[in-house]
User: What shape does this take?
Amino acid sequence: MFLHVAPANTVSKRYSPLVNAWVYPFFEQNWRLFAPDPESVNRQILARTADTGSDRSVHVSPWFDLTAVDSSAVEHQPFPSHTAQNMLRRAWSGYVDTHGGDDKARTERALMMQKYLTNIAADRVAAHKGGAFDFIQLRVVTLPIAPGPAVGDRAPTRTENRLLPWWKAPRHGK
Assistant: This one.
């Protein structure tokens, strides 16, 4: 942490990839605690898995709603953790920030965010559905929140349905 927060120097520059790999995404610093930016859309993140059988046939599972599982966990807890509320949402935000709209990882950080999102999705699917799988795919449906008196007269954005490519599932999903 010291090398991350210290002013740039020879040591911090040399080890910045290692330091950043340890610091992000768990200790990311931002000012949202003091100046929150409320969500202007509702996102539904869904996952499906694929498994290759011994006869080389591919079985694709139906879509599984990861967002609904998170919402249910928060709704029935008197003191829900920020992890339950924000992990999947923040992973998606980090993915979008580093990948843009084309789903190609061009930097080390983009690749790390892709792996982070994949790991979260694979863990959640494995915990709820069980079974082994080789690949995972995500679909993100973004729905606008209708403007109300507090939001102003912003026009609602259109509904977006984004289908990500198939990714190799991490080892713990297998």
